[in-house]
Amino acid sequence: MDNIAGRKSGLSWAVNLSVIFLVLLWLFPTAGLFVSSFRSSDQISANGWWQSMFPTEQNVTLRTADPDDEGAQELVDGLYTVRGNLFDGEDTADISVWGYSSRAIDDFTVGQTAEMKDGETITVEANGDYVWTSPEKLTGRGQRVFATATTPPKFTTENYGTVLSGSGTDGAMAKAFLNTLTVTIPATIIPIVIAAFAAYALAWMQFPGRAILIAIVVGLLVVPLQLALIPLLRLHLGIGIGKGYLGVWLAHTGFGLPLAIYLLRNYMAGLPKDIIENAKVDGATDFQVFTKIILPLSFPALASFAIFQFLWTWNDLLVAKVFLIDATGQTTVMTQQIVELLGTRGGNWEILSTAAFVSIAVPLLVFFAMQKYLVRGLLAGSVK
Amino acid sequence: MEAALLGLATIIIGVGGCLGYFFFSNQILDRFIFPASGPNAGRNINRANMVRPWLFLLPALVALGLYLAYPVVATLWYSVTDRSQDNAFVGFANYSQMMSEPKFWEAMRNNMMWLIIVPAASTAMGLLVAQLTDRLKWGSFAKSLIFMPMAISFVGASVIFKLIYDTRPVDQAQIGVMNAVWLQFEGGIGSLIFLRLIPAALLLCGAAIAGYVAWGQIQTIREKGQVVLRGLAVVLLAWIGISLALLAFGALTKTLPYGEPQTWLTIPGWNSFLLMIVLIWIQTGFAMVILSAALRGVPEETIEAAIVDGANPFEVFFKIKLPQISSTIVVVWTTITLTVLKVFDIVFAMTNGQWETQVLANYMFDKLFRANDWGVGSAAAMVIMLLVSPILIWNVYNARKEMR
């Protein structure tokens, strides 16, 4: 008996550990984006994001205060002296070695005094305090100091400010966010309304051709929307809708309808027959049965589809590229904005990761808030 | 702001219009066309009830017809006409032009790889996670975290993985984790184990499994027939097995450029796999959710009976649970296959089909909107449609069977 129990606990340990490993593996990529969005561009290129939680050693170029500044230098014991802190008190870093020439950046340890040309000397302490002296009056810019410093982990929310409120290409993100919302909300609500009525007719009304219509909906469920691009773009241009919000709403409505009808019909068909028949006996019309009984009861299915459609329209790139975004670029959406950033500023990870995180934050919120309905919809929606 | 207001107005007009249409069309039907009063009340009610379903269906039918059914026909038409010749009928000229392009065959080849690898890997990973988390106390929490990438857009995921695959010059710190890990290997004993022996062993395992399943199929042909379908499966499995074995051989013998950071996305052959990983990362959650529900549905008695008979956990999983959820596995597999066939954003955002990563959907987009060649673009779209149609027919067939 001991033997069996022991083996079982061993196995459950292995299961727990492997699940932890898998979860971490799955979270790791997103965590990288999230952490990077809180780092400045220097920090991002200094080391990998997974090291950002620990103090880092890096080579920095610093400069003392300009001696020409008012009150910067004073005469102490016959020497012109400039005192201050290399980090301006902003950063807290630990300098280990330093130098005054870019060719010898590790000549001196902290506390040592370096003799430079013309009798100038400079002393640097670990915390960045320096004393710079000269027999002559100092002029020009401050002395450069090259140091190897250990900086504690540091994060900033500056990137979010740049992305959301900045001007130029960075500020386009804020606008793209609004545009995406403008695309998403009508494109989620309109198909629900249309599909709900159709689903009711297909589930609870008797008429010839019903079975064929249901089969057609199931068939259209898998038609790739790639096929629709050219004919519909031509149609839109032909009837004067052109490229714009109306076109993209209509397109998303059309593409979302099969799934909406399929999900809602299956759900409505499973509602108890008695309720509907009783209501009809009591004199309710089909319209009343639908609005007063079916719609409230179908809330879970409506919510499932709403989440699907929301995620799909929010995350979409192809439909927006074809039906919405015109040459002026006024109606760009976030996915397009990110692809452009990837192309033009592929190395600017602080902007790129922040922009990407802004765009995935809303779907993630929706996802975690309404996961129950999403799972339910998935289970009902995968064609059996 | 203007756009937001416009959006709000459209929501109100659009939704109000829809509701208004449904309400007033019903009112008009009942009050004026076929009033439920007067001498013909009974007949009128019947007639109204015959018309009403179509009132409910009309907007949906118009939208479906215009946005999905019509484009299929129209695209078929475009694929056999030439726009530059005033839309003259040109037969299969577009198709033959497309077939003569190496890029098209590259896209086909890659798409086939995607079609085999992504559904298989996603389903297998999903099944693994579903089974591991089945009896776990914190299982639902773990599942929701692995499910999370479903909410992330393909474009967002592309950015996430581009950071992972990022390359910096050799004298700078690597910020992409893949290169950072790669540079840890220097060709010593660790590299031998992790980069040669383990991958080769895994690949040989896969080859052995493929061979085993193929052998099982051959046995079944002897017993039950169905030569064509099973024969096809055997050929496919044999091909997979042989390629895996070859890959294993390659893993053992290839000289590796240790110590140099690699620009992963530009290495033909590997880069397609790196793009596939993005989709596998996203789709595993989907597979897991559905398969985990299916595993819950496996009757407890069958499992208990097996345990009483002395089955170990692996036997319970492979011999009791797996056969009972096989139909769900097929559903998951086909659904992911559909997603793979339409994969566009990932390739577009990460490589845009360069370095031999082209896939059909991106090839089509390229033809349509960059080369402005609608004929070939439509032909490529029809190829996608053709690849989808077996699943379409299968779904419709099943739905009809279920309705009866």
Q: Tell me the number of strands of chain A.
A: 9
Question: Greatest interface and its residue counts?
Answer: A-B, 114 and 116 residues
Measured as a percent range, the helix fraction of chain A is 55-70%
Radius of gyration of chain A: 32 Å
CATH superfamily of the largest domain in chain A: MetI-like
Report how far apart the termini of chain A are: 44 Å
Number of helices of chain B: 16
Q: Which percent range describes the beta-strand content of chain A?
A: 5-15%
Largest sheet of chain B: 2 strands, antiparallel
Q: Helices and strands of chain A: which structural class?
A: alpha+beta
CATH class of the largest domain in chain A, named Mainly Alpha
User: What would you call the shape of chain B?
Assistant: globular
Counting structural domains of chain A, the number is 3
- Please, what is the oligomeric state? heterodimer
Structural class from helices and strands of chain B? mainly alpha
- Give a quick account of the main beta sheet of chain A: strands, pairing sense, barrel closure: 5 strands, antiparallel
Strand order of the largest sheet of chain B: 1-2
Which strand order do you get reading across the main beta sheet of chain A? 2-3-8-7-6
Explain the overall architecture.
- The complex is a heterodimer of chains A (384) and B (404).
- Chain A is built from 14 helices and 9 strands.
- Chain A has helices at residues 2-36, 41-46, 158-165, 168-204, 210-220, 229-239, 245-269, 273-281, 286-297, 299-315, 318-323, 334-344, 349-369, 371-381, and strands at 56-63, 73-76, 79-85, 94-99, 108-109, 113-115, 121-124, 129-134, 144-151.
- Chain A is elongated and about 110 Å long.
- Chain B contains 16 helices and 2 strands.
- Chain B has 404 residues and is mostly helical.
- The mean pLDDT of chain B is 82.
- Chain B has a two-stranded antiparallel sheet with strand order 1-2.
- At the A-B interface, helix 1, helix 2, helix 4, helix 5 and helix 6 of A face helix 1, helix 2, helix 4, helix 5 and helix 6 of B.
